[in-house]
Amino acid sequence: MGTRGREIVGEHLPRVLELLNKAFADEWLAYYQYWVGSKIVQGPMKDAVISELVLHAADELRHADMITARIIQLGGTPITSPREWFTFANCGYAAPDDPFVKKILEQNISGEQCAINVYNSIISEIGLKDPVTYNLAVQILQDEVEHEEDLQALLEDLGVFLVRQ
Ligand code: FE
Ligand code: FE
Ligand code: MG
Fold first, then answer.
1. CA dihedral sign, ordered 132, 134, 137, 141
2. Spacing of C-alpha 142 from chain mean position
3. Cα(37) to centroid of ligand 3, in Å?
4. Which of 96, 114, 121, 141 has the smallest CB count inside 10 Å?
5. What's the CA-to-centroid distance between 40 and ligand 3, angstroms?
6. Ligand 2 centroid vs 76 CA: distance in angstroms?
7. Cα 128 from Cα 19, distance rounded (Å)
8. Cα of 137 from ligand 2 centre, angstroms
């Protein structure tokens, strides 16, 4: 990348790359959790939930892409082995072993809440030390906030549906 563009990050570079790679691992795990969840989910309102899970999976993959672009721009290397995702991730992975729609929604809501905490703390820590990464984290945080809201709305609708059965 441009030398001046990297220079302004200065001594903060190793920490910024660490934060980015950790978030990168979270995004891949979130992508897969949504992707596989969309394939196996069962129960009422399944079609509406599948549509949302598929959209969110695409967003998480796009986040991984945005983060990689910044890692490379800073002269870093994105995690090259999926094995390392578990070591680096902040939020871990919740396997959708129970395919019931309520359980899947709850797992993904927890994941989004973790993601919101992660990006919020990246924003606080980085601040003006690296305005480009700061801006990236703000963009992703906006999506994660929307994801949580979407899933909670579905869970609320599902609650009404289940009570009326
Ligand atoms: Fe994400
Ligand atoms: Fe998300
Ligand atoms: Mg959505």
1. negative
2. 11
3. 15
4. 121
5. 19
6. 24
7. 15
8. 12
**Ligand 1 center to residue 164 CA distance, Å?**
34
Q: How far is the CA of 125 from the centre of ligand 1 (A)?
A: 19
pLDDT tens-digit profile, the chain (165 residues): 678 988 899 999 999 999 999 999 999 999 999 999 999 999 999 999 999 999 999 999 999 999 999 999 999 999 999 999 999 999 999 999 999 999 999 999 999 999 999 999 999 999 999 999 999 999 999 999 999 999 999 999 998 877 776
Q: Which domains does the chain have, with CATH numbers?
A: 3-164 (1.20.1260.10)
Which residues have a beta carbon within 5 Å of ligand 3, which is an ion? 150
Handedness of CA 61, 65, 66, 68 (dihedral sign): positive
Question: How far apart, in Å, are the Cα atoms of 151 and each of 25, 42, 78, 126, 139?
Answer: 22, 16, 29, 29, 19
Phi, psi of 42 (to 5 degrees): -135, 155
* Cβ pair 44, 74 in contact under 8 A: no
Instruction: Looking at the CA of 108, name the nearest ligand.
Output: 2
